[in-house]
Design brief:
Length: 204
């Protein structure tokens, strides 16, 4: 299977004075269904960048969880680590897929403003993209209602919130939903992951 490195949510555990990186086990099941395996990257810049450099991974997944620090989030070390990873990813040009917060990591880099939005925490929301309407989940408090080059949006909700973006000249894709929380996983999401990371067709 192809390898894609993956980032984690940061959780504070006051009773143990710990800062923990964590990842829903559903991510492993989803990526396996997509023909992928994912070496984990901690929210420690020096370690994450060293692991990324030596992981022989063909791509990078930025997962959800934690608001950006600029929006009041409590995990600035995660922002710093993911920004450092994105800097490295721009050079060799591997595929990068940002999920929810992961997509939000891309937008400020291209001066796309994120603002608080209402009505976007739901298990069912219809979005329009690539000529189709799709029912997805949504768990966000901040989003953009615009985009600008080199990021182009390819899915939008009825309230105008941008739900998916692509880099017009690169290999960056962002989706504003949580495919790992679907049960069963969406065939469209599996196909998207396989397409982004260039995984061959499923065995019959």
């Amino acid at each position: 299977m192809k390898k894609v490195a993956i980032t984690h949510r940061v959780s504070g555990v006051p009773e143990y004075s710990e800062r923990r990186d964590s990842l829903d086990q559903a991510w492993s099941r989803l990526l396996t269904a997509c023909g992928l395996m994912a070496p984990p990257l901690p929210s420690v810049i020096e370690v994450a960048t060293a692991l990324w450099a030596g992981a022989d991974a063909t791509g990078l997944v930025l997962t959800g969880g934690n608001d950006l620090a600029a929006l009041g989030g409590d995990a600035p070390e995660r922002d710093a680590t993911e920004n450092a990873l994105l800097e490295l990813a721009e050079s060799p040009g591997p595929s990068v897929l940002g999920v929810c917060r992961g997509m939000q990591m891309f937008q400020p880099r291209y001066v796309i403003p994120l603002r608080r939005v209402e009505g976007n925490v739901t298990r069912h929301q219809v979005i329009r993209g690539d000529g189709e309407s799709t029912d997805v989940n949504c768990y966000l408090r901040f989003a953009a209602k615009e985009s600008r080059p080199p990021l182009a949006f390819w899915a939008v909700a009825d309230d105008g919130v941008v739900k998916a973006i692509r880099h017009t000249a690169g290999s960056t894709t962002g989706i504003m939903r949580h495919p790992e929380r679907m049960d069963p996983f969406s065939a469209a999401d599996v196909a998207l992951f396989r397409r982004v990371f260039q995984v061959g067709p499923c065995a019959p």
